[in-house]
Amino acid sequence: MAPDTNTTWQLRAVIEGSPSLVEASSGRQTRECGLPSTSCKAVTDPPRIEKMNQNTVASLLELATKSVLSNQSTGIRALELLPKHLFLPLFVTALKERQKKMLTEIVKRWPFQCLHIGSLNIEDSPLEIFEALVDGLQIVSDENISSGGPQLQVLDLRENMDCELTCYYRASSPFCLSSCVYAHNAIPNAEESQNRDRGLEMGALESEHASSRRIIELIVNISFRRGFRMNQFLYFLKRKIRQSSGNLHLCCRKVYIRNMCSHTRRLRFLNPACINCLEVNRVHLRKVTRLFPQLICLDKLILTARPFQYCEGRSFRIFVEWLGKMAILRDLSLSSFYLGGHLEELLSVLLSPLDSLSLRFCNLSTVDVTVLSESSQLTHITRLNLSDNNLFKESYYPFRMLLRRASRTLQHLEIRNCKLTDAILSALLSELSCCSELCVFCFSSNPISMSALKGFLQRVAACLKLQEVIYPIPVHCYGDNSYILNYERLSEVQYQVKLMLQVVKREDMYWSTSTV
User: Could you report the per-residue pLDDT of 441-450, keeping only the tens digit for each?
Assistant: First the structure.
């Protein structure tokens, strides 16, 4: 029996533990599999296989996959005979060992409809691995597909801890759970985007032909902060799209842009309908609406202005109109925008209820807190971050009303650096205690005394769902100089907090300070 065939049957014997398969795989020369003699003996000994526990099988399987990968040419030939369920451990091992050529060949022969990076960790030079995986995609027309041809239709390069390698074993339908709904409709848009710069138009015949093609979906998240290597990867993707003649659909779900001015041109080849998360730093409202006028399918939008930016005039009106077109927006985060007096205008145009709202460094006033407390959005929000605003400058009453209206849904609340004092914290204790769903509360970087902190802990200990509290360092820990922290005093505070949690029998709660 040839070495590659024998190795394949050895793999199959290990994973299935079948005596018949073991006997078939033993052959005349068991050493041809490339495994150590002890491993070969275990693989070719039916009685021992029957008694194997899961750890033993896993160890032998790892040895067998490494044997396939030890000789690249032999291993590639072995892929032709490999049972489909053995592709999974083989892919994981090849990824760990960064065997780029083998990864390309595995993708070419991948027997499932989808392949997800998922929770697999690629720390060093991930873009090189991504390119090797993309090179393995078999982009062919429907008429050239045989029953034994390529099966892979969705290659997902996103990190996702909850995602498995393939949906084959957990999906009730034959379709990938991450498949893009715009895969076919997006092709003309991508071609139009390229042709627009050349002054060309697509004909009806070409559009009809594009819609009948067999589409391969490539799902990615793109971060414009990796410098030159990311630019190379983007050029690589553009070249692959051109070479596919419309058969490759690039679906970018998340875009992170560190500097808006530097990356405007590189974004034009992305299909805006696919993007559901946009995060931009150093952004100007006018530029983001000009670059993404059709980006209305977002469910998460994170914008940070650098430097501080006033929200007024035509640019702000266009931005508000743009927000008003987003029918599925669930998560909105704005930072360093001067929203004072304009919050009502912004909230009133939102079409869908928000799950999360973050307005850090937005110069919110008491009037804005009143607007938020009266907004219909508040009764849906589970996550609220109003940090770095002087919320209690004029009155704390609007914030009390806010807590009352959000008490049934609010799970995560942050009000760090909001000039919260002992008296105001004491006045808010009743409302905070009534937030029945609150799990995380952060109020660090506020001038609170140790006595006020003790009173707060004793009061919220009864809130059984509250599991995490980020509390401010008490003012006495800074001594006479408010900028120099006394770490001995801080250690004593942390020790007292730990003891108090034990006394009230809430050791399950996590309390910590933030020195940022």
Answer: 999 999 999 9
Q: Quick check: 155 and 167 in contact, CB under 8 A?
A: no
pLDDT at 363 exceeding the cut of 80: yes
Residues in contact with 398: Cβ distance below 8 Å, sequence separation at least 6, in sequence order: 366, 369, 370, 373
DSSP summary character for residue 294: T
Query: Which pLDDT belongs to residue 33?
Result: 38
pTM of the model: 0.81
Distance of CA 145 to the CA centre of its chain: 34
Structure confidence at residue 74 (pLDDT): 81
Residue 164 to residue 329: CA distance in whole angstroms: 27
The tens digit of pLDDT for each residue in 150-168 reads 689 999 999 887 788 888 7
Give 226-235 pLDDT, tens digit per residue: 567 788 888 8
| Separation CA 97–CA 75 (nearest Å) | 14
Query: Tell me: the pLDDT tens digits for 56-74?
Result: 555 667 777 777 777 778 8
Closest to 190 in 3D by CA, of 318, 61, 294: 294
Q: Which amino acid is at 493?
A: V
For the chain, the structural domain boundaries read 1-82, 278-363, 376-516
Token pair recorded at residue 122? 């690629």
Give the list of residues 6+ apart from residue 21 with CB closer than 8 angstroms, or none. 9, 12, 13
How crowded is residue 488: how many other Cβ atoms within 10 Å of its Cβ? 9
Q: Which amino acid is at 29?
A: Q
Homologous superfamily assigned to 376-516: Ribonuclease Inhibitor (3.80.10.10)
Q: What is the dihedral of CA 69, 75, 79, 83, to 10 degrees?
A: -60
Secondary structure element (H or E) that encloses residue 252, with its range: strand 248-257
| 320-347 CB burial, b ≥16 within 10 A, e <16 | bebbeebeebbbbbbbbbbbbebbeebb
Statement: residue 514 has pLDDT above 50: yes
CB 250 within 8 A of CB 230: no
Q: CB atoms < 10 A from the CB of 202, how many?
A: 13
- High-pLDDT (> 70) share of the chain, %: 77
Residues in contact with 476: Cβ distance below 8 Å, sequence separation at least 6, in sequence order = 449, 450, 489
Tens-digit pLDDT profile for residues 430-488: 999 999 999 999 999 999 999 999 999 999 999 999 999 999 999 999 977 777 899 99
| 312, 316, 318, 322 alpha-carbon torsion, rounded to 10° | -160
What are phi and psi for residue 290, nearest 5 degrees? -70, -40
The amino acid at residue 331 is: D
Secondary structure element (H or E) that encloses residue 106, with its range = helix 100-108
**Burial grade of 402 (CB within 10 A; 0-12, 13-18, 19 or more):** buried
